[in-house]
Amino acid sequence: MAERVLRPAPLTAAAFAPFGDVLEATGAPDMVINAGRCGRFHDRARLDFGDGRAGLSLFRADACPLPHVFDLVERHPLGSQAFLPLSDDPFLVIVAEDADGQPGRPRAFLSAPGQGVNLLRGTWHGVLTPLVDATFAVLDRVGDGVNLQEHRYGTPWSVAPP
Amino acid sequence: MAERVLRPAPLTAAAFAPFGDVLEATGAPDMVINAGRCGRFHDRARLDFGDGRAGLSLFRADACPLPHVFDLVERHPLGSQAFLPLSDDPFLVIVAEDADGQPGRPRAFLSAPGQGVNLLRGTWHGVLTPLVDATFAVLDRVGDGVNLQEHRYGTPWSVAPP
């Protein structure tokens, strides 16, 4: 079956709000510290670790050049998951709204330098897809229970270059 | 009074262990996920939010070119604090061991691309000092109480280029 094509949109807080938080230092800081040399944009993620605890891990991911073809998305029903790239390189964020326990049509976003994301608990998303090999700090739930659900679309999707 | 000179050392997990965790994707991953395309280095920080909760903030900090002269260090008695640069650029990490409630001689470390740090609760440290303007994700405690102690050295220190 032919792939269905998505084009990535710029990653903006407004467009991404149903799926999670865009973590970026834009606009006016909430506090200015260090004798004026640092702006703090305070507590910008809707973190949720449920009955678990916060854990900070590192992910080292291979490059996924565009076009990127996928059929798999997943979600974590027990907690939020934040991805913070330790580099300036853009990465692709694939998410989908839920419809009665199944993911709907996926959406693709492309990050800009200085942006990370926090996925809300239970948000359908693609696996980590940097455009070049990249390391991310990942903040998610550590705890007991089954915190992974996967879904394969019957027809693959392809994310084209923007 | 003349400044006292420090030279930064490379940021390694072993040298930094008394002060906190070096967050980096080195060695063998704890898990390989995403059909072999991603290594997970799991739960690598000694996070501690005490009676508060985890909060994820962004810091936008001005460059501190070397030599960097300082007399101020601070610590957070109620929780850990992680700094995750959203870029490849190195940053300076200044820390000091505690001696009866006062910081001892400071030590300076210079990060490599792909490294972040997590400072243990109560670790004396300098303010955020990237070598170029930089954005960091910061994971620290959100909650009530006084979570800042400051100390000024009687004689300033200068961090020389490595």
TrEMBL record, chains A, B:
InterPro entries: RmlC_Cupin_sf, UAH_cupin, Ureidogly_lyase, Ureidoglycolate_lyase_dom_sf
GO function terms (MF aspect): ureidoglycolate hydrolase activity; ureidoglycolate lyase activity
Keyword terms of this UniProt record: Hydrolase, Lyase, Purine metabolism
Tagged with keyword Flavoprotein: no
Gene Ontology BP annotations: allantoin catabolic process; purine nucleobase metabolic process
Reactions mediated catalytically: (S)-ureidoglycolate = urea + glyoxylate
Description of how the protein assembles with itself and partners: Homodimer.
NCBIfam families registered for this protein in UniProt: PRK13395.1
Entry protein name: Ureidoglycolate hydrolase
Organism per entry: Rhodobaculum claviforme
Lineage of origin: Bacteria, Pseudomonadati, Pseudomonadota, Alphaproteobacteria, Rhodobacterales
